[in-house]
Amino acid sequence: MKTSASMFENMYEQIEAYSKTRLELSKLKAVETTAGLASTVISKGGVSIMLALFFIVFNIGIALWLGELFGKNYYGFFTIAAFYLVAGVLLHFFLPNFIRKPVSELIISQTLH
User: Fold this and answer.
1) What pLDDT digit, counting tens, does each position of 76-97 carry?
2) Would you tell me the crossing angle of helices 97-112 and 4-70 to the nearest 10 degrees?
3) What are phi and psi of 51, to 5 degrees?
4) Which pLDDT score is estimated for 30?
5) What is the C-alpha to C-alpha distance for residues 77 and 65, in angstroms, rounded to an integer?
6) Is 104 helix (H, G, I), strand (E, B) or coil?
7) pLDDT-derived band at 25, boundaries 50, 70, 90
8) In this model, does residue 42 exceed pLDDT 70?
9) How far from the centroid of its chain's Cα atoms is residue 27's Cα?
10) Whole-number Å distance between alpha carbons of 21 and 39
């Protein structure tokens, strides 16, 4: 029959091994979540940069075209600026969760994955 001291030592060793395993598993899950989130941000960031460059060049083209129609180039740029001012005000007042909600949902889904 085992002594109670050897049983407690055996149980202590098992608890210690379990704790170390849980800690290692938590570290690995944190690394996986961080890597997934970083890769998502980087890939979507690259696409976002390309889209931003497209829209900048596209808007310059539209501004120049409108300026040609209005007779002065800067009239086209003023028109584009006024359009974005109105669009920004409308987005600010009517769509406050337009950006915040999808970004927070992306972060939550990536961290809980």
Assistant:
1) 999 999 999 999 898 888 776 6
2) 150
3) -65, -40
4) 86
5) 10
6) helix
7) very high
8) yes
9) 22
10) 27
Cα distance between residue 17 and residue 97, in whole Å = 46
* Closest among 24, 23, 38 to 110, alpha carbons compared: 38
Q: Residue holding tokens 């997934």?
A: 36
Residue appearing with tokens 């007779």: 71
Tokens of 44: 């979507």
Tokens of 25: 């598993």
The amino acid present at 16, given as its one-letter code, is E
Distance CA 44, CA 24 (A): 30
Dist. CA 7–CA 69, nearest whole Å: 91
Mean predicted lDDT score pLDDT of the chain: 86
- Taking the C-alpha atoms of residue 35 and residue 29, their distance in angstroms, rounded to an integer, is 10
pLDDT value at position 112?
A: 72
Output the six-digit token pair for 59.
Answer: 């808007």
Q: Are 64 and 76 in contact (CB under 8 A)?
A: yes
> In the numeric block, which tokens belong to residue 58?
């596209």
